[in-house]
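Our preliminary data section would be incomplete without showing what the modeling component actually yields. Below, a chain of 368 amino acids is followed by its predicted structure, encoded as tokens that our downstream tools consume directly.
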Amino acid sequence: MTLDELDTPALVVDLDVMEANLQAMQQRVSARGLKLRPHTKAHKIPALAQRQLSLGGEGICTAKLGEAEVMADAGIMDILITTPIAHPIKYQRLVALYLAHPEGVFCQVVDHAEHVLGIGKCAVAAGVNVELLIEVESGQQRCGVALGKSLVDLIKLIEATEGVSYRGIQAYSGHLQHVQDFAQRQAQARAAVLPIFDFIDNQLLPQGLAPRVVSGGGTGTYQAYTGLGFTEIQAGSYIFMDAAYRALASRDNSRQNDEFSNALKVWTTVISHPTPERAVLDAGMKCLSIDMGMPLVEGREDIRYQSGGDEHGILHLAEGEVSLTIGQRLLMLPSHCDTTLNSYQTLYGIRGDEVVQSWDIAGRGRSD
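Predicted structure:
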């Protein structure tokens, strides 16, 4: 199939660009003496997770338990679930994951005694042991236990609770991934976690409570942690990139990120052209998420996209520019790859104008 034969809206990925992104991140993280644990919430596709592992990935991350179930059912056996879970329903599902895949290593992030006791109770009843990673506050003010006695007490509770074991710490500063200036982004990311490593060295280590694993970082901040105690990096968006990441300055303070390239795109059609300065696409908020800003028209900086609602995308053309035509196809660069991908059932792999592969987005909608 050629790209012109593909109906719209359709989610496509440039395979050559994606492969270059995958190899570049693995090489850069490895060169820093760290392990890469790719965050698969960006793509939700087991086959792409397997490709990341084949390049050297240290297991994978999923954001939610539902995503972990999808990945485990596809044969991926080393999974870190990066969001805390609550309620016996979830605890029982986590234990069921262990029972269904006894050869797997599944680690759950927690930040409260309730998580530890609830998971431990279900694990003991099922005869399994669940590994836990404690999320520590690192500037985002989302989940995460504060440094101090509360962290020490939580580690000691895990070690004293049957059915669970203490693996380490998660320190993820998601709020810093999109700081525009490169030097400021790296400096702020490093400063956000330095107190954690000071606490490990001066408080946890002397008590025999030092973590075996310290996991965190992302596509925008992975370079900030050289020489610290991180053992693995959780980057995810690098596989696809998006307009928000593209706008970040690189090391040389260029206005556009040149570390990774945009691979994920949405194939759209012009369905209306009411005025010379305004055209309409068949791709609105249900196809192109706008939580990180507006998408871009690939190769057409003279055209500005505006959301026209659920089903419509409005294109504003500069005065005097050549008009588009009804039925014309355009490639859009999503502003946020994760939330855009979650709106589609299928991802099509392209090389040039040829559609050469497709994947079912198996984890789509699995925010459970």
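The longest helix spans residues 182-204. The mean pLDDT is 96. Preliminary results of this kind motivate Aim 1 of the renewal.
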